[in-house]
């Protein structure tokens, strides 16, 4: 984590330190306006993501988002919480659909769906790496689940065979009169 520059009078988030309490209280007030009581931030983020998908072509069409799209969204929708927005953007940008598009994309898009800046090779490679790791992890989980299922089936078969043999032995050696 980088230390804030005391000369700039800003924290890590880039908000001036004198403005931070006001921004935090505004964020809390904005979150109270947007969401019903009792929802977790993840539930709020999913609801916000659905709202963004209906409102903006870049989200609806799952286009690579322009750098700084969060600032555009806050300017466009001042009633949303920064925390919930951050979670919603994380859900969106980590989705398989978005990563697959990002892997092949050449340009990023603004909220209206218009081309913004180019997607760098580094960003395409990062999307490919995340997909590769995710598929590898999924394959390992499927393999582990199959091994566990096979072991459980083998144990059940062994228990069934054991019970049959015990029944045969008890029948053979039981005293019948």
Task: Describe the overall structure.
This protein is mainly α and 177 residues long. It has two domains: 81 residues, ProQ/FinO domain (Fertility Inhibition Protein O, Chain: A, Domain 1, Orthogonal Bundle), CATH 1.10.1710.10; 56 residues. The chain is built from seven helices and two strands. It has a two-stranded antiparallel sheet with strand order 1-2. Strand 1 and strand 2 form a beta hairpin. 15% of the residues are buried.
Tell me the major beta sheet. 2 strands, antiparallel
Give the CATH level 1 class of the largest domain. Mainly Alpha
Poorly predicted runs:
1-35
Residue share in helices? 55-70%
Query: What is the rounded distance between the termini?
Result: 85 Å
User: Count of DSSP E strands?
Assistant: 2
Q: Can you write the helix and strand succession as a string?
A: HHHHHHEEH
Strand order of the largest sheet: 1-2
Q: What's the shape?
A: elongated
> Could you tell me the strand content as a percent range?
under 5%
Number of domains: 2
* Oligomer state of the chains in this structure: single chain
CA gyration radius, whole angstroms? 28 Å
Q: What is the mean predicted local confidence, pLDDT?
A: 80
CATH architecture of the largest domain: Orthogonal Bundle
For the record, what is the CATH homologous superfamily label of the largest domain? ProQ/FinO domain
Number of helical runs?
A: 7
